[in-house]
Design a protein that fits this description.
- With 307 residues, this protein is an alpha+beta fold.
- 57% of the residues lie in helices and 8% in strands.
- Strands 1-3-2-4-5 form a five-stranded mixed sheet, with helices on both faces.
- The N terminus is likely disordered.
């Protein structure tokens, strides 16, 4: 934390009597406290440790706790000398480090809450593209009460490791809907395989057999590997190769890229469930817990039950 922020926090503590010293006890109005706070925020010469909302919280707490004093209006407020205050402030912080910890925890709570709200807003704006986009792959119960979205790349090692997790979830949960979104970011081979996969998903064949074959095939997955897996299901590889760059196929891939850009998704696998984005391969119990919470309260993070 910068000395400027320390000054803000401890000025409020000093004025409220937190330091317990009798150097001065000036009466400070709400306007004067806010002026101090705004001056700290505006001080660009030092890194800011508190955002505007955290400063407002501190100011509000101070005003609420300040004892009422009958002070004549013409009594001047004691001038605060940083040269004298800073040593007192630092000494007080060394003796009471929990003050900074409480401020830091409060700020982290506000940052986390703000980030969650931003995520919910972004997900709501992309609802149709995430859950109802043409050409997307739907597994499990198409009318399931909870939807789990996975964005993947066929050459992603962590996606391979996560495949058994997806199989288990689909087998044990008859009301789970799974959407797979091609998100080829690792190589040109990944992009080519994804374009073949989009066409396979729309053909009258067992898409899961194709999906599993690519994720269990040795070596890098590319156009040749995808065409072979599709041929094994009876599809014409020439037709598939000719259809790789059609507008319909390109639109499916571009939708995934657009979702990823908006939500700042940069890796695979990435899961989307309810109001949460989950990066990376996670333990199956974490996904089970989030699915259960979605059914219980409509969010992946249900409020704790008292008692």
């Amino acid at each position: 934390m910068s000395r400027t922020t320390i000054l803000l926090v401890l000025i409020l503590g000093l004025v409220a009597g937190g330091v317990g010293m009798t150097v001065f006890r000036p009466a400070v109005s709400e306007a004067q406290v806010r002026e101090i706070a705004e001056a700290v925020v505006a001080d660009s010469s030092q890194p800011a440790s508190l955002d505007k909302s955290a400063v407002e919280t501190i100011v509000a707490d101070f005003i609420a706790q300040q004892p009422r004093q009958n002070v004549p209006a013409d009594i001047a407020v004691a001038e605060l000398d940083p040269g004298k205050l800073n040593p007192m402030i630092e000494s007080y912080l060394m003796d009471n480090p929990s003050i900074l910890q409480r401020v830091s925890e409060r700020l982290q709570q506000e940052v986390t809450a703000k980030r969650k709200e931003e995520t919910r807003t972004q997900l709501a704006a992309l609802d149709a593209e995430i859950y109802e986009a043409p050409g997307q792959i739907v597994l499990g119960n198409p009318d399931g009460d909870v939807t789990l979205v996975e964005m993947f790349d066929y050459n992603c090692g962590y996606c391979r490791q996560a495949l058994p997790t997806l199989v288990t979830l689909l087998d044990e949960d008859p009301n789970l809907r799974v959407i797979l979104k091609e998100f080829p970011i690792l190589s040109q081979g990944s992009a080519d395989a994804a374009r073949i996969a989009v066409q396979v998903s729309e053909a009258d064949v067992d898409y899961w057999a194709f999906h599993e074959a690519l994720f269990t095939a040795p070596g890098q997955v590319d156009k040749a590997a995808a065409l072979k897996a599709a041929s094994d299901l009876g599809l014409n590889p020439i037709t598939l190769e000719m259809g790789m760059n059609t507008p319909a196929v390109s639109a499916v891939i571009e939708t995934s890229y657009r979702i990823a850009e908006t939500l700042n998704i940069t890796g695979t696998p990435t899961y989307i469930i309810g109001d949460e984005i989950i990066p990376g391969a996670v333990d199956i119990d974490q996904l089970r817990n989030r699915i259960a919470n979605m059914r219980a309260c409509g969010s992946t993070d249900c409020p704790a039950t008292p008692g």
